[in-house]
Amino acid sequence: MKYKIYNYLAGFFSLAIITTSCVNDEDLVQVDPNNDAVDSFWKTEQDAIEGVNAVYGSLLTDGTYMRSTPLLLDLKGDDTRSNSPWGAMYNVGRFNSNVSDAAIYGWAYETYYQGIYRANQVLENVPDITFTDAALKNRILGEARFLRGLYLFHAVNMFKNVPLPTQIAAFYPQKTEAEGWAQVIADFKAAAELLPVSHTDINDKGRATKGAALGYLGKAYLFTRDFPNAKITFKQVIDLGVYSLVSNYRDNFTDTNENNSESLFEVQFSRSAGGVDLGWGGAPASGWGKTSARAITYGPRAFGWTDVQPTWALFNEFQEEKTVANTVDPRLDATMFYNKPGGMQLYGKDFATFYAGNAGDLNDLFCRKYQNSDGAYANEFDWRSGINERLLRYADVLLMYAECLNETGDTPGAYTYIQKVRDRVGLPNLATAKPGLTQAQMREQIGHERFLEFPLEGHRFDDIRRWGWLQDPAKLAWLKSRDVEFNSYTAGREFFPIPQLEMDNNPGTIQNSGY
Questions:
Q1: What are the DSSP calls for 325-360, one per residue?
Q2: Which residues 6+ apart lie within 8 Å of 505 measured at CB?
Q3: What is the three-state SS of 386-412?
Q4: CB 372 within 8 A of CB 256
Q5: How far is residue 459 from each of residues 153, 165, 304, 455, 480, measured CA to CA in Å?
């Protein structure tokens, strides 16, 4: 087993009725009245630990980070494209998700509310449990507030006007986007007060920390354009003094250096934890593994399904600025496979040799981030990647802090924090290369820096949307020139539709505009 966080998931899952704001016939099955397991639960510290572990469990299934959530976050950006034969996936990046087919986006919505429900169980029951260790109680409550905030963050960010359950109840009405962000902020604030800066027990690796809560609190402020509060919060993360960039950029996307100094929060996957079955969702089974299907979904041709690929706009932007050693930005090779002059290896094969018989593949681009492609595996067709999903990296905090400095009038100060990220990959001093940038010019520069630092990590479209580029005719035209998928964008479709099941079961729910 990888971490103690896995130990109790299967046992606790059997105790909980998974109720969300999306209800179907299966969800109405009642607990066996002859089984007193539920009534006898929530009595001990161990029950509390098992309960909060179950909240983490909702991060591991298909609706969240096993597969669906990365797809929903990645495919709408100009760093990715999809020619998947599966319409539900193909249409995400084309802003054409079908209201009558909730595949992928509906699974994510349901799982977010599953996680919220589980968090609410902890928050409602744990305060009444007597603890011998008050710090442990605070930590468990802090983890539940953080995780509820994280699930709500995704729900509000992707679906806009959603219910905001904060207690265990049968029905919660739809709320406004502003109310949603207010609740997200409240949860992360509370979590930051309760969580420790770090965990000393190796078995607690992967649990939420104060830095994770503050990092996401800063993001929530940033996404609502509250730059002063975002700036203060990101500086708190920096001042904790526990985070630093790893020297090798690629170490953030493999299973060899997980939970490293750059990671504020990551989802814990493992090939050795649990069983070998895939956790598609629904009622948990004892044979479920704790592995990810991201690698096979994004995998290069003949090594995975190739449902997601990098864009040529991304490839070309990596060529715009050479390192101080006059080489191509090393993040390019860490991000994608391509027919590199001098050769490139994938899964123990030479790219040019392997694809020599197919000109289309030989001259194409394939994803490398989060692939088990360094030689230990022949391909991804067992569907069982153990690579942790890094949700928030310190590099992101540094660039978001630089953005806040720029937006609050300290454009010169932004250079310092941008350069920390550039230094790792050997790029020239920005203050020398582009001195005296105006606030508007620095905004553009930060857009470029973020594009190259975080491709295929679920950040690009969030940036595009929060910067208002979709409402700017010039910017939208620019995006269309880089990624033809933007040609089918229509106003309102920056958000996903509210799933039809939610519409049916919660009378009065209003569908997002554009659908």
A1: TS---THHHHHEE---TT--EETTEEHHHHTTT-HH
A2: 21, 22, 23
A3: CCCEEEEEHHHHHHHHHHHHHHCCCHH
A4: no
A5: 13, 26, 23, 7, 18
**Rounded Cα distance, 80 and 485, in Å:** 10
Each residue's pLDDT tens digit in the chain (515 positions)? 343 444 444 444 433 333 333 333 333 233 444 445 667 899 999 999 999 999 999 999 999 999 999 999 999 999 999 999 999 999 999 999 999 999 999 999 999 999 999 999 999 999 999 999 999 999 999 999 999 999 999 999 999 999 999 999 778 999 999 999 999 999 999 999 999 999 989 989 999 999 999 999 999 999 999 999 999 999 999 999 999 999 999 999 999 999 999 999 999 999 998 888 888 877 778 888 999 999 999 999 999 999 999 999 999 999 999 999 999 999 999 999 999 999 999 999 999 999 999 999 999 999 999 999 998 899 999 999 999 999 999 999 999 999 999 999 999 999 999 999 999 999 999 999 999 999 999 999 999 999 999 999 999 999 999 999 999 999 999 999 999 999 999 999 999 999 999 999 888 999 999 99
Name the pTM for this structure.
Answer: 0.93
Q: Are 368 and 337 in contact (CB under 8 A)?
A: yes
Rounded CA separation 259/394 (Å): 12
